[in-house]
Write a structure and sequence with these properties.
This protein is 37% helix and 12% strand. It is α+β, with helices and mostly antiparallel strands and 68 residues long. The strands form two sheets. Strands 1-2 form a two-stranded antiparallel ribbon. The chain is flat. The protein starts with 9 loop residues before the first strand and ends with a helix. It has one domain. The structure holds zinc ion (ZN). Zinc ion binds next to helix 1.
């Protein structure tokens, strides 16, 4: 039997971190898969949110989606 408990780990090409959550598709080339955080960063960036504000928003999202 296969071990279904092993999550599929990908490495995000944007931040270099491993992640197992469903990936986010890059808006830039519609091809590259990012981790969900970078997907959020890219979306925020596209509406003019600065990098430090992006991190604050991502931290807030993490606080509301803690299910580990
Ligand atoms: Zn990433």
């Amino acid at each position: 039997m296969k071990n279904e408990n092993i999550a599929r780990i990908r490495i995000c090409p944007r931040c270099g971190k491993p992640y197992s959550a469903p990936p986010a598709l890059s808006r830039t080339d519609n091809e590259t898969l990012f981790c969900p955080d970078c997907g959020t960063r890219e979306a925020l960036e596209s509406i003019g949110v600065k990098a430090d504000e992006q991190e604050q928003i991502i931290n807030t999202i993490h606080r509301h989606t803690q299910n580990v």
